[in-house]
Amino acid sequence: MNTKTIYEQDFRLWVAETIKNLRAGDYQKVDWEHLIEEVDSLGKSDQRKVKSFLRQLLTHLLKRHYLPLPQEFHHWEVEIRNFRIELQDLFEDSPSLKCYANEVLPTCWQTALEGVRQDYPGFDFPSQCPFPLEIEQLMDFR
Q1: How many domains does the chain have?
Q2: 137 near 99, Cβ under 8 Å?
Q3: At what angle do helices 97-119 and 32-66 cross, to 10 degrees?
Q4: In whole angstroms, what is the distance from residue 79 CA to residue 117 CA?
């Protein structure tokens, strides 16, 4: 059976065949091109998750610290906790993602700031990040 055809027609079956061939040491039957593509996409997927969770964390920290809407405080605090848990799970699986988080934190800050300024135009938000721009400290910031 042609593994490239399997990849295009039934991804799950392709995964099962690839695992079987790798475990058996039958490397000639491995669809290396697609396997490399899939492994590469796994890393990129985790990076996208880190950026997304960081943006959301910073967005909710901004809301919680700068919007005088006490009826929303609890909701924002729950969201802050949840995004930290998601990030912590990613960091436990791949500790090197902390370095990536530190790299993208300034960009995530800018995106979060632009978002809250658009969503809440009548409120004043700081231009400079008032939160730690180091992931370890941001994870514990109150």
Answers
A1: 1
A2: no
A3: 50
A4: 19
Considering the chain, what is the average pLDDT of its residues? 94
Question: What are the C-alpha distances in Å from 101 to residues 54, 124, 131, 138?
Answer: 8, 27, 14, 11
- Flag whether 19 is in a domain: no
CB atoms within 10 A of CB 63: 22
User: Which tokens in the block code for residue 14?
Assistant: 């392709």
The predicted model gives 92-116 an average pLDDT of: 97
Q: Which of 101, 109, 103, 104 is nearest to 128 (CA)?
A: 109
**What Rg, from alpha-carbon coordinates, does the chain have?**
21
Q: What is the pLDDT of residues 70-79, one digit of tens each?
A: 999 999 999 9
**Which string of DSSP letters, residue by residue, matches 30-82?**
S-HHHHHHHHHHHHHHHHHHHHHHHHHHHHHHHHHHH---HHHHHHHHHHHHH
Count of other CB atoms within 10 angstroms of residue 110: 13
In a domain, residue 20? The reply is no
Query: Is the model's pLDDT at 51 over the cut of 60?
Result: yes
The answer to whether residue 50 is domain-embedded is yes
